[in-house]
Input
Amino acid sequence: MNSVIFRTVLMGLGLVLAAVALAGGSVTFDFEDVPAGKLPAGWTVEATSPRGELASWKVVTEGENHVLEVVPPEGAFGGTYNLCWTKEVRFADGEITVRLKAGTGEEDQGGGPMWRVRDRNNYYVARYNPLEHNFRVYFVKDGSRKMLASAPRIRIPSGQWFTIRIVQHGDHIQGFLDGKKLLDVHDATFTEPGGVGLWTKADAATRFDDLAVRPEAG
Output
């Protein structure tokens, strides 16, 4: 298959996935059909409170798998949140799961999913940080982050894959880490459907795989 046809097939696949999600169906991004060095169709790289260059997000190979990797720029600012997300997949209620592996980072490590995303300054996010040994859920509104719940004393080391699952029904948010429910909170900051994506902070270098979005039927 020549490169033009290959790119056309990939674009068509991206449009099909987006259409399924917009219709309320489940969609999984495993990145296997995305060429190394590229992003999935319809995804955007942005930042909340950016300072200097944006982080580099691209699909890379790990063994036989394709995964999405973020590499922060030199001198990454501590208050910068690195985002890679799509508005073509709409989510309000249901489940979101993602596998991730924390890499390097002196100030911050790890990351997690973001959902009900309005734009780069307004969204929900959950993340695990191996440096702080905690799992937390926040909202970011008008660029300012507020913590909603935190689970301390967690020991998943950098370099090890783990899974975050978020379950949302109305204003009820539950967070699971490797299958164990650790977060349970109510918040009504964002009530409308929004985009979904992935999030890291500052100098965290992280890999993500198998982002699954399962909207609630109805």
In short: The chain has one domain: 3-215. The two ends are 40 Å apart (CA to CA).
